[in-house]
Amino acid sequence: MGCDRDNANGFVGVFDSGVGGISVLKSLVAELPGEDFRFFGDSAHAPYGEKTVERVRELSHDIVERFVADGAKAIVIACNTATSAAAPGLRAEYPDLPIIGIEPALKPATEAPDHGRILVMATDITLRLDKYHELAETYGQGCEVISVPCPGLAGRIEHGDLEAADLVEMIRGYVGSFAGTVGSVVLGCTHYPFVRRQIAEVLGSDVKFYDGGAGTARQLRKRLDEAGLLAPAGRAGSVEFASSKDTPAELALYREFFGYEL
């Protein structure tokens, strides 16, 4: 099934395993304020980074299928794990539908002057898949890139209460040994921008952070423009939230995360 290429007033479907993709959604809205976005968080199955590749592909396919049935003009996979695991298959299945993914921001991190040692924080599955290794091989030449899996961190962020002391202690357990020794951190999971301050508390306030949200937003604009699917100029866009954990409390949590300053 393809998409209606004249549907400039259609919506952009954005999905993640939970609240993390809202960090990407914020970049999308900032870049394209005239578009209608529908965000779906698969919180009932979060986090994807601790599931098998096959299960992530299955869950991603089901979400995109529903978006397409509802008339999506484009899809943003706001999850590094789902992008690595599922994007190639989804693009093959829907060749006429712009499908934009996200990947760890190694390129801008390695190209930045005085980047120092680069720490990549991500889920285990993201760090294991070929896509990440291709990025590291392409952009990591001449740099010291340190990959650190952070099992459980995305799941902890899903629960909110980001000021709690246990969250800083969890982060310290993953990266505390690198305090004062790294210049840059690539946030390789879309949940992690929400705890940038807590990571800096552990690693040092002068650490520079990189994530893929802004680049993904620019790519969405480019793809919509090429397809003639950009919303008309001057139009006021909208944002809708939905979740597989369909409770008032969960949707309130999504709106809370959308209001956070990053």
Q: Can you tell me about this structure?
A:
With 262 residues, the chain is of the alpha/beta class. It has two domains: 11-102 and 213-258, Rossmann fold (3-Layer(aba) Sandwich), CATH 3.40.50; 106-210, Rossmann fold. The protein has helices spanning 22-31, 53-69, 80-93, 106-111, 124-128, 130-139, 153-158, 165-175, 196-203, 213-226, 248-258, and strands spanning 11-16, 36-41, 74-77, 99-100, 118-122, 145-149, 184-187, 208-210, 238-243. Helix 1 (22-31) links the parallel strand 1 and strand 2. Helix 1 crosses helix 10, helix 2 packs across helix 3 and helix 8 crosses helix 9 (196-203).
Care to give the gist of this entry?
The protein is an alpha/beta fold and 262 residues long.
What's the topology here?
Elements (H helix, E strand, L loop, with lengths): L10 E6 L5 H10 L4 E6 L11 H17 L4 E4 L2 H14 L5 E2 L5 H6 L6 E5 L1 H5 L1 H10 L5 E5 L3 H6 L6 H11 L8 E4 L8 H8 L4 E3 L2 H14 L11 E6 L4 H11 L4
Parallel strand pairs: 1-2, 1-3, 2-9, 3-4, 5-6, 5-7, 7-8
Helix pairs in contact: 1-10, 2-3, 8-9
The helix count comes to: 11
| SSE sequence, one letter per element | EHEHEHEHEHHEHHEHEHEH
Strand tally = 9
**CATH architecture annotation name of the largest domain:** 3-Layer(aba) Sandwich
What does the largest sheet look like?
5 strands, parallel
Q: Mind telling me the C-alpha Rg?
A: 18 Å
Could you give the order of strands across the largest sheet? 4-3-1-2-9
CATH class of the largest domain: Alpha Beta
- As a percent range, the share of strand residues is 15-25%
Question: Which percent bin holds the helix content?
Answer: 40-55%
Low-confidence stretches: 1-5
